[in-house]
Amino acid sequence: MKKFYLLALLCITLVACSDNYPKVESSMPYKVVNGTIVLEEPARQPGQESMLNYACEPMQTVRVGLIGAGGRGRGNMGVLMQIEGVEITAVCDLYQDHVDKAQKQIKDAGRPAAREYVGAEAYKQLCEADDIDLVYICTGWQMHAPIAVYALDHGKHAAIEVPAATSIKECWELVDASERNRRHCMILENCCYDKFELLALNMKQKGLLGEVFHGEGAYIHNLDPFWAGYTDSWRLDFNVKHSGDNYPTHGLGPVCQSMDINRGDKMTKLVAMSTKAMNSAEVAMRYNNNKEIAEGDQVVTLISTENGHEILIQHNVYGARPYNRLFMIAGTKGMANKYPFEWFAVDSKQAPGVAELEKYNPEMLISGMSESSIEAFNYLKQTYEHPVWTEHEQRALEVGGHGGMDYILNSRMIYCLRNGLPLDINVYDAAQWSCPVELSALSINTGFMPVQVPDFTRSDWNKTQGITFAHK
Ligand SMILES: NC(=O)c1ccc[n+]([C@@H]2O[C@H](COP(=O)([O-])OP(=O)(O)OC[C@H]3O[C@@H](n4cnc5c(N)ncnc54)[C@H](O)[C@@H]3O)[C@@H](O)[C@H]2O)c1
């Protein structure tokens, strides 16, 4: 009987891992188990420790080394210079004229010149310097993880533009380097600090939406005016070779926060589909003279979660669709929706005092949809404004940066570093929100097979419940 059982088990394993499935390139070895692609998940190495709730020693001044002084790097630097306790110690770029522009900006702000590093490998010297606390990475995607790992291995905290990594291997490298060195590794996901996304998060956390079971996010943005501006065409070069959702985090980050991903829930499987290349092919030809492009016009990705919820994200940077991050969360008691215009639906019983504001449907308060419901909409916006937004609004609107969210993102990070508090966004979020870049491509390239989503927390996803914003 035992022999028969073992034989049956062997047959099942062989079938599960059989060669009938298409083989595709991946950054980590994988097996196909019951029709699902399962990537190898490396074990935590001796000497590494979870970074959950990690806080470093407080620092009075945060000495920043900026790597990548292009459009976004100089934009972020301008915001950082408006925040108390920040020093721009060094600037690094491939090109001297990009560094010169950053230096002019620093001079115009009345600050002392930064030390300069120029060249493809010059970032290493910056990371090795002993007068820098935070390496702030704004290069093209291809260099995010290699630079961050080098910075972490040289004792620096790392802040990385989006997405933090381009492959699952890089996601694990970030997690391991952060754990190994006990240094923060934060993804600079500014959309998590948008007024509406924070408001929806607050409504969810106050119980107004019930159990949030469905979230949608996207990056739909026609980049036609921008393609020519990316240095050495790094963005199109990447998209030409990669068929997945190459820019998932603006949509995914805020949805994950509202759905407690890594803080009470975790992603389990992902399936992605892509249209063929239409406008993307035309863009690749026009700007790069590439006859072929791997990325189709539109990629749609569906993700399931351990608690039985679902997330949908979209990516389209080629089409005629107007800018849209979707941002919709739906729960058992209500929902919040950001695009194309902001509205909520909530069970009136969940929002005491608002039923009378809904003139047509007192059971369900649908706000923001029509003239008659604007009053109710404004009531909800005022009543449930997120305290982080309330605290920073005035300065955020003065300083700006994507409507103020860049200012709040950077202010919160600097505040937590200066006060020795855990950051709002940790290395596990950086890895989780970036991982669809490769996973969606794996699914698309195998004819839409499901892919198991790695648990970068290594089983700690249920140790905290919901995001908190640390304060002294
Ligand atoms: N969060 C947001 O809202 C937002 C908005 C725009 C861009 N971004 C992100 O910011 C990053 C940069 O985008 P961008 O629009 O500024 O591109 P960009 O081409 O204007 O700037 C990239 C810069 O990095 C430099 N660089 C490249 N390799 C380098 C290296 N090895 N060492 C030093 N410098 C190097 C380039 O010379 C260039 O100056 C990207 O990751 C992008 O996704 C985020």
Shape: globular
Ligand catalogue: nicotinamide-adenine-dinucleotide
Output the structural class: alpha/beta
The CATH architecture name of the largest domain reads 2-Layer Sandwich
Radius of gyration: 23 Å
**Main sheet: which strands, in order across?**
16-15-14-13-9-12-11-10-17
Proportion of helical residues = 25-40%
What portion of the residues fall into strands of 2 or more residues?
15-25%
CATH superfamily of the largest domain: Dihydrodipicolinate Reductase, domain 2
Task: Tally the beta strands.
Answer: 17
CATH topology of the largest domain: Dihydrodipicolinate Reductase, domain 2
* Termini gap: 64 Å
CATH class of the largest domain: Alpha Beta
Task: Give short descriptive properties of this protein.
single chain; 472 residues; alpha/beta; Rossmann fold; Dihydrodipicolinate Reductase, domain 2; 9-stranded mixed sheet; 6-stranded parallel sheet; 15 helices; 35% helix; binds nicotinamide-adenine-dinucleotide
Question: Can you describe what's shown?
Answer:
Helices cover 35% and strands 18% of the residues. With 472 residues, the chain is of the alpha/beta class. The protein folds into 2 domains: 130 residues, NAD(P)-binding Rossmann-like Domain (Rossmann fold); 223 residues, Dihydrodipicolinate Reductase, domain 2 (2-Layer Sandwich). A 9-stranded mixed beta sheet has the order 16-15-14-13-9-12-11-10-17. The chain has a 6-stranded parallel beta sheet with strand order 5-4-3-6-7-8, sandwiched between helices. The chain has a two-stranded antiparallel sheet with strand order 1-2. Helix 5 runs parallel beside helix 6. It is globular and about 60 Å long. The termini are far apart. The protein binds nicotinamide-adenine-dinucleotide. Nicotinamide-adenine-dinucleotide binds next to helix 2 and strand 4.
